[in-house]
Amino acid sequence: MGARDNETRQYQNDQTVHKKNRYVWKRIRKAPAKAPDPHTYERCKAFISQLQQREVTGEGALWYFDGAGFCLTPCVPYAWQPLGEVIAVPTSSHGRRVNVLGFLKRNNELGPYRVEGKIDTSVIVECFEQCSQQLDKRTSVFLDKAPVHRAHEFVDHMAQWVKRGLLVKYLPAYAPELNLIEILWRFMKYYWLPFSAYASFQHLYEAIEQILTGVGTEYTITFQTI
């Protein structure tokens, strides 16, 4: 029996052992540094639920905003993990990146912005300026409490955006799962980007562009109501 046959048999034996010990093959997750405050978390969920109902009846619009960076370093792999548990590893990134900002609705409507270079507060403000000038109904936008989202330059524009019908709502700290656009970034990184995208930076950029253009048609996510 050759070395390859031994490796195959060992892999099959490992699968059997892992399954008997109630392990499943799934992706390793990147966990927040801390757990969110439970009371703040539940209040925010209830508020989002109310806004979702208003969205359904056409009384208002609800968007989720955030940014993501994509690089040539592959994402964390799948691994055998105990049922009901998740292995989490620290987030790290380096090298040249494709930076994307976006506004996302639960119906998969996406307003993406590709950014060359650093994403600072002035870039975020410009995105919200453009969004606020295109509204046809009262709109709430949820985003996290990143420093660029709470800088004076950003906060100083809020009153002007409110007059246009755009209300900025902050999510609780350490609760990325409440921001639906985080799910979009995860789908892009772990499911939709083909392996060929990592052949070069140009391949990566073109693959991201294709996905962003196809969100809502070729690429869709079914979001559950909170």
Task: Please describe what this structure looks like.
- The protein is of the alpha/beta class.
- Helix content is 40%, strand content 20%.
- The chain has eight helices and seven strands; from the N terminus they run αβαββββαβαααβαα.
- It has a five-stranded mixed sheet, with helices on both faces. Strands 1-3 form a two-stranded antiparallel sheet.
- A hairpin with a 5-residue loop joins strand 4 and strand 5.
- The longest helix is centred in the N-terminal third of the chain and has 20 residues, at 38-57.
- 16% of the residues are buried.
Count of helices? 8
Major sheet details: 5 strands, mixed
Strand-pairing-aware structural class: alpha/beta
What is the ordering of alpha helices and beta strands? HEHEEEEHEHHHEHH
The CATH topology assignment is Nucleotidyltransferase, domain 5
Provide the spatial order of strands within the biggest beta sheet.
5-4-2-6-7
Radius of gyration: 21 Å
Count of distinct strands? 7
Corresponding CATH superfamily: Ribonuclease H-like superfamily/Ribonuclease H
The CATH architecture category equals 2-Layer Sandwich
Question: Which percent band covers the strand fraction?
Answer: 15-25%
Shape: globular
Instruction: Give the overall pLDDT as a whole number.
Output: 86
* Highest CATH level, the class: Alpha Beta
* Weakly predicted, low-confidence segments: none
Report how far the terminal alpha carbons are from each other: 55 Å
List keywords for this structure.
226 residues, alpha/beta, Nucleotidyltransferase, domain 5, 5-stranded mixed sheet, 20% strand
